[in-house]
Amino acid sequence: NIKWVKSYEEGLEEMTKSQKPLMVIHHLDSCPHSQALKKVFVADKGIQKMAKEDFIMLNLVEETTDKNMAPDGYYVPRILFVDPTRTVRTDITGRYSNNLYAYESGDLELCE
After folding, report:
1. pLDDT at 63 over 80
2. Which domains does the chain have, with CATH numbers?
3. Per the confidence metrics, is the pTM higher than 0.70?
4. Residue-wise DSSP of the chain
5. Position 105 pLDDT exceeds 90
6. Residue 109, pLDDT score
């Protein structure tokens, strides 16, 4: 099972201790795109292994007050990465030019 941290602050703390990057998945329970992404994420063994071994994982339903977590707006689903120096990696983007950090259910191979 993947260990999920409970808050952005806890994620930053765990990331600093482990020196593993933080993957922040922003979603809403009521969003069909978020639900589709979740199903694919759970079903993909490669993504599961990567999430377990290589990242601190945060599943964020509520928005954080950290504006760095919304470099191009507040939309879902979006995935952002924070490196152990606490830098939000705005250079790691998905395939959409209008929502740079959006990932649809068919986009998870971009994460591998």
Report:
1. no
2. 4-111 (3.40.30.10)
3. yes
4. -PPEESSHHHHHHHHHHH-PPEEEEE--TT-HHHHHHHHHHHH-HHHHHHHHHH-EEEEESSPPS-GGG-TT-S-SSEEEEE-TTS-B-TT---S-SSSTTB--GGGGGGG-
5. no
6. 63
User: pLDDT at position 67, please?
Assistant: 87
Taken as a whole, the chain contains a residue count of: 112
Surface-to-core class of residue 2, CB atoms within 10 Å of its CB (0-12 exposed, 13-18 middle, 19+ buried): middle
Q: How far apart are CA 67 and CA 70, in angstroms?
A: 5
User: 7: which 2 tokens?
Assistant: 């808050």
CA dihedral 101, 53, 11, 109 (to 10 degrees): 10
Q: Average the pLDDT over 55-76 and give the result.
A: 89
8 with 53: CB under 8 angstroms? Answer: no
Question: In whole angstroms, what is the distance from residue 38 CA to residue 105 CA?
Answer: 8
Amino acid letter, 63: E
Q: What is the pLDDT of residues 23-41, one digit of tens each?
A: 999 999 999 999 998 998 8
